[in-house]
Amino acid sequence: MDTAAYITDVARHAKEASRIVGKAATATKNAWLLKSAEEIRASQEAILEANRLDIKMGREKGLSSAMLDRLALTDERIKSIVDALYDIAALPDPVGEISNLSTRPSGISVGRMRVPIGVIGIVYESRPNVTVDSAALCIKAGNAVVLRGGSEAFHTNRALAERLRKACQEVGIPPTSIGFVETTDREAVRILLTLDRYIDMVVPRGGKPLIELVAETAIMPVLKHYEGNCHVYVDRFADLDKALKICINAKIQRPGVCNAAETFLIHEDIADEFLPRLGHALIEKDVEIRGCPETRKRIPEAKEATEKDWDEEYLDLIIAIRVVPSFEDALDHITRHSSQHTEAIVTENHSLAMRFLKEVDSSSVMVNASTRFSDGGQYGLGAEIGISTDKLHARGPVGLEGLTTQKFVVFGNGQIRE
Amino acid sequence: MDTAAYITDVARHAKEASRIVGKAATATKNAWLLKSAEEIRASQEAILEANRLDIKMGREKGLSSAMLDRLALTDERIKSIVDALYDIAALPDPVGEISNLSTRPSGISVGRMRVPIGVIGIVYESRPNVTVDSAALCIKAGNAVVLRGGSEAFHTNRALAERLRKACQEVGIPPTSIGFVETTDREAVRILLTLDRYIDMVVPRGGKPLIELVAETAIMPVLKHYEGNCHVYVDRFADLDKALKICINAKIQRPGVCNAAETFLIHEDIADEFLPRLGHALIEKDVEIRGCPETRKRIPEAKEATEKDWDEEYLDLIIAIRVVPSFEDALDHITRHSSQHTEAIVTENHSLAMRFLKEVDSSSVMVNASTRFSDGGQYGLGAEIGISTDKLHARGPVGLEGLTTQKFVVFGNGQIRE
């Protein structure tokens, strides 16, 4: 069979299966999650064997050590894959919830019912845990899924997907609910992204080039997760002890992730007092500082920031710092340079805090808290499939709810429209 | 200036203005709606004059009488345009609402704030009221708007848009918030639909060919409103008096609109009793019936339905009727032929009613009510910008809420992530 016909078949079968997953009972979906965990634990040796094959081929292909590390499974990593399945089983099922039910003057009652989207396509790179946690979130939300992982993790992903499908059979969910694209043909992705008849939404999980490729190619909606150029603005009414703690935490607690801060904006009225303290604390933690001229006056160790620094997502122990003459200048800087992921203000002034919350157009906006909180787990959403930097459908951390949609339901008793 | 540069300018100015509209007070937005109403009433003669010019040019171009009718303004139609502005002023402002605020174990409080989308593009056909009600809904929801109407209504739309922009100046909203594309160059639409840097969402308002053209061309999200091939399923547990009232209302109360029924599915157990009554009532109302063989046995006047009839949106006094052997067959028929707009079941059986609500994948699903209720006004949403047949972002009737989005807001007191 040629690639196009094969991929179309996988997607069409997923669409058919989605009608059954969509009405599956919560207990059935949870049973599948627990069975999958069991199957993966029981097949741990076979999965590690498949992973060793991928690692061997990756070494021969000359993959970087960072890529090989992302690809590698260990007992501990398999344990965390299995734990994620238990966590997702423990989450409430969003499907079927009816909200905003109200009676209208005509006598009908109108509400909104939360329902699955249908089929979710996942296009991802080398981390094999994505195979399991994406499928788990999609099925729990009542969707079928079509998985297309990176070719370098092909054997590992296939071994994992096999266990998920075996668990399907055991609990009575069609195994075709978990479409796994069994070819490393690169053309497969392009074909997948044109099958809007069968695939309702695509989630790319990986670096910016992958996301851009998917966004440009796909004709169905794409849930995008672009970079996080996150800002902390320290206002002139800030409590400087809180500000110091928040800045340091936002930058260094885990610098390689999208909700880490990349630029601090400091109000000039507090720059003399705050910047030397901040500079000292950052340098102590080995953070490289790139500052505007006003920053460098107060932190002599700071390098000179260029225009490019304001747009950079370092994902590293580097921070850009700019002194701003006013609250409005901080907003302007953020409007111009932010990637609309997460921004925080540190201030004790209520009116400015509320203005910042309202006027900053980012997926998460915070007052007196570290940007590192921008996370599905921290927000109480449970596991997340990504952090959407799109404005429509889902914005910010996306958990089960973002994998569902709503429809109107109307309860009548014979009403007609006059 | 060339068309591309001109359109880009309009859109860029709208984007800049959107930051001001987005934070405008409710009172300012309402003042604009009332001023616009005043301006339109005061300029009624000039607007009618512009409209007469469009009508004259339309006659010369040989427009159909239906098109000329859609295009024509009268005193009464201007009154209903003005009334719509008052209605929108009376709606609650969705912007700034914070929902689901809860405190997390870390001590932060997390909620969602409803915020404007940014700039909405409206691409529409010949009905000039769309100029006013689209702009009114967009501005009330805190968005800027870029309007591109049909060339045959150009002078009328321009006259209306001028009044809206004049009202902007009077209340202190930038007139560039209402971008009006002052060219009839057809290339303008294509260019507009590529400006995703400035335009966040596009709403096509018009017939299917327009919607398809916009959906295919636009690189930003499109709120689509495809046809309504709506079904009423009369179950074997139906109260046949209710069923008759609902069927007749769904078909004939206003046959030319998208939430009118186009197919009835009748359970065979009640076909002998119900179909002759239904046939009689339909024929009395001059409805043409196209039936399956089982229908024609019970309604001899019915013509023979072909496969094509099950997919047809007649928008006319024509109905397709099929007898189905079971509830499951009704679901199957709907899955195969529905346009996922609105479907209703008539039944007194609770379990089947709830299964129908859950399993039918349409934007509105009803029990014992006429499909004609699928409407923003009837649902209590106020004025609507369309009825979305998309599954993501907004589904079903779209009012002010569908012209907004949500972001996460976090209230802390110095919390950092451990």
Outline the structure in words.
The structure is a homodimer. By secondary structure, chain A is an alpha/beta fold. The first copy, chain A, folds into 2 domains: about 5-225 and about 400-410, Aldehyde Dehydrogenase, Chain A, domain 1, CATH 3.40.605; about 230-380, Aldehyde Dehydrogenase, Chain A, domain 2 (3-Layer(aba) Sandwich). The first copy, chain A, contains 15 helices and 16 strands. The first copy, chain A, has a 7-stranded parallel β-sheet with strand order 10-9-11-8-7-12-13, sandwiched between helices. In chain A, strand 4 (about 145-150), helix 7 and strand 5 (about 180) form a beta-alpha-beta unit. In chain A, helix 5 (about 75-90) packs parallel to helix 6 (about 130-140) and helix 6 (about 130-140) runs parallel beside helix 7. Chain A is globular and about 65 Å long. The mean pLDDT of chain A is about 95. Chains A and B meet through strand 2, helix 10, helix 14, strand 13 and strand 16 of A and strand 2, helix 10, helix 14, strand 13 and strand 16 of B. Strand 13 of chain A pairs parallel with strand 16 (about 405-415) of chain B, so a sheet runs across the interface.
